């Protein structure tokens, strides 16, 4: 009974923590866009997310896959570079001889993944800023973003999707 209570409370606290992190992140973006206070910006961000759930969901799913592949490619390139560097004649001689390149390659892979994660966190914040800016622009102009580039408008236009969903039910 105690283990069940502990694991369920741990799960609930984890969900609350992720929600607060998301609200804080989006609120900070809306503070930068609108210049309003934290609570007002948080309410605006939450409203935008709820009103544009299809647009934001589409961008987040595709973006998460691409960002993960980017992290994986960068970290594997670091590991490959470390292996190729350790495979040279310099590290095969008696003085600098490395018996197995496995540990240095794994360390290079892990450090590459950490650095790529930090870098792509900035890219992810940029993506979230762009999508929230687009949603804010669309909301201010009756559903049609006025200041967005044509390619972004074409990609994120969910008017057709919303009409299909509402007509189907």
From TrEMBL:
Coiled coil: none annotated. The chain crosses the membrane at residues 27-49, 61-86, 106-123. Keywords: Glycoprotein, Membrane, Transmembrane, Transmembrane helix. The keyword Membrane applies. It is a multi-pass membrane protein. It is found in: Cell membrane; Membrane. GO terms for molecular function: transmembrane transporter activity. GO terms for cellular component: plasma membrane. Choline transporter. Belongs to the CTL (choline transporter-like) family. This is Choline transporter-like protein.
């Amino acid at each position: 009974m105690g283990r069940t209570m502990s694991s369920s409370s741990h799960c609930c606290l984890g969900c609350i923590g992720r929600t607060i992190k998301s609200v804080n992140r989006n609120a900070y973006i809306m503070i930068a866009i609108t210049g309003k206070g934290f609570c007002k910006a948080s309410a605006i961000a939450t409203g935008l997310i709820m009103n544009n759930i299809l647009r934001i969901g589409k961008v987040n799913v595709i973006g998460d896959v691409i960002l993960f592949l980017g992290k994986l490619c960068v970290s594997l390139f670091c590991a490959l570079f470390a292996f190729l560097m350790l495979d040279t004649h310099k590290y095969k001689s008696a003085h600098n001889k490395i018996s197995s390149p496995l540990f240095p390659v794994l360390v290079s892979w892990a450090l590459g993944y950490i650095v790529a994660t930090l870098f792509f966190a900035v890219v992810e914040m940029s993506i979230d800023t762009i999508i929230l800016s687009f949603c804010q622009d669309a909301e201010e102009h009756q559903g049609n973003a006025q200041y967005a580039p044509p390619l972004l408008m074409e990609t994120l236009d969910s008017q057709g999707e919303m009409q299909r969903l509402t007509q189907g039910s």
